[in-house]
């Protein structure tokens, strides 16, 4: 058996090297270097929960090593009690401390879950910037509906300004994540998820898809820039000066370009109105009444009516189609109680 002193001499250099490597890499861990209020609150929660759990873990590790050393076979001075089986004092300590920690963690988790709800808008006197994010194979498309522009694999926003993200997918499920700013949330076809973030510092922050989605997943990253108001307005003017227009045709072409390498930043100076709603609606199929805004269903019906009109159908037929789309709420819910739940997975 190797003496503990000798074993310690062998392990000490390796442990010191490992600790040095971890400490030098701390600045590279984005979640531990937040640049926004949401990220800061999540960092505080992570550290608090870790410290509370260590109140149990560290004593257990110390006692395990201490007992193993004190009651080793070669220590003839250790007290030997083969019939010992119970200690009320030990039972109280072993059960009461973990129960108190679990109780504190439960309250902390409950409060933070509501305070850091990604769907909860941030309170601010500054008007928020709305950004619609669509995950494609394998790139991110960002639409600024109020500015009527779109950008691939890049976003810019003014510092200290709330960001209202509306997120969906045109393909498989992905996950939208800017580690320096905070929460991650999924993007899913035929659904709209929301995320509210803010940057309290100017800078360049990497964004990514943190959910595997296919061959080009590793290249599915983008850059988020937090800039001053003047720089933001200058960037908007630069994007608007672009000649490309993002409409349904160009969107389909963008989606069909399944890049395995990183897709370059692309600016669209003009964007077709309600394109984000159209992307959601085209994947909804017969389940338009399940948890989705009726505006999406109406957008799908209006698009179908327009398509029929272009193909030479009578105006009355197109009008009837549009009216039926606007009344989906009544007709769809009538059938939901019979066969709809099986199709939706509920």
Write up this protein.
By secondary structure, the protein is of the alpha+beta class. It is built from nine helices and 13 strands. The protein has helices spanning 4-24, 37-70, 88-115, 229-240, 248-256, 275-281, 294-310, 315-326, 328-344; strands spanning 129-136, 139-144, 149-152, 154-158, 163-169, 174-177, 185-187, 193-197, 203-209, 221-227, 245-246, 266-268, 270-271. Residues 23-27 and 307-346 have low confidence and may be disordered.
Query: What spatial form do the alpha-carbon principal axes imply?
Result: elongated
Strand content: 15-25%
Gyration radius from CA atoms, angstroms: 28 Å
- Helical fraction equals 40-55%
Largest sheet: 6 strands, mixed
SSE succession: HHHEEEEEEEEEEHEHEEHHHH
Query: Largest beta sheet: what is the strand line-up?
Result: 8-5-1-2-3-12
Mean pLDDT rating: 82
The count of strands amounts to 13
Structural class from helices and strands? alpha+beta
Task: Give the termini separation.
Answer: 60 Å
What's the tally of helices?
9
Low-pLDDT windows of residues:
23-27, 307-346
